[in-house]
Amino acid sequence: MFERFTDGARRAVLQAQREAAELRHGYVGPEHLLLAVLAEPEEPAAAVLVEAGLDHETVRRAVRRLLGEGDDAQALAAIGVDLDAVREAVESVFGEGALDAAPEESESRRRGWFRSEPKGRRSPFTARARKVIELSLRESLRLKSGRIGVGHLLLGVLREGEGLGARIIADHGLDFAALRGALEARLG
Length: 188
Fold this sequence. Notes:
By secondary structure, the protein is an all-alpha fold. 62% of the residues lie in helices and 0% in strands.
């Protein structure tokens, strides 16, 4: 699917990985994709958000407030995941130490574009982030665009509607339908 991405959308996906790495999050979620969209100020998607009053720094502050900045344990604790309880449950099923060694990464995953670029650090995409990317393809097809652009990534965030990226947009008081309409008008 990556071959359908415009250069701008490819840069945005890589920027999402850098955003996650800068925040020291061990994953890439919809919030990182939203940050990446806003990191490209010349893109119509970023302009629509900025005109509506939502900019990169505002989103970054919201992500830090909601998830914190730090390692995976801190981020998971910030959203209510008790790692000790998870470890206990996994070890009760798979045996003591089941989480101690990382499993071998599959060949398809190593070759896939869902790998991290910054300094070789692995930043896996969450299920919601993968859903946003899948929905960006659907939005591109719906709009008969032929290629997936940065605007389609934002439309994917809006359509997914439940991830942290969408929550930040909603918490900022922005109307999804109005954003969608403004963005679709810009995309032609």
